[in-house]
Design a protein that fits this description.
Blueprint (H helix, E strand, L loop, with lengths): L1 H13 L4 H21 L2 H23 L3 E5 L5 E5 L2
Antiparallel strand pairs: 1-2
Helix pairs in contact: 2-3
Length: 84
């Protein structure tokens, strides 16, 4: 019963987060789980959490700017604009 209450509380806390924050949290949790299971150590879980958090953050950031693309002008400068 306690596990269910904790799970509901964690999901409720994520409900008010942006896509970037959700992606980071989900990525870090998943990475920690996979890292811990794969290496059977806390160190592996820590490395997995960091790697998963970074990847989750990048995916979440791409969701925040949906409909925008990155272009290069003729001088090689990057800029962001609505996708064509």
């Amino acid at each position: 019963m306690k596990k269910i209450i904790v799970a509901i509380a964690l999901l409720g806390a994520l409900a008010s987060c942006t896509a970037t924050e959700k992606g980071t949290a989900i990525g870090a949790g998943t990475g920690a789980l996979i890292g811990g299971v794969a290496t059977h150590s806390w160190g592996g879980a820590a490395v997995g959490a960091v790697a998963g958090g970074v990847v989750g953050n990048l995916i979440g950031r791409s969701e925040d700017r949906r409909g925008y693309c990155i272009y290069r002008d003729r001088y090689g400068h990057r800029y962001e604009a609505r996708c064509r």
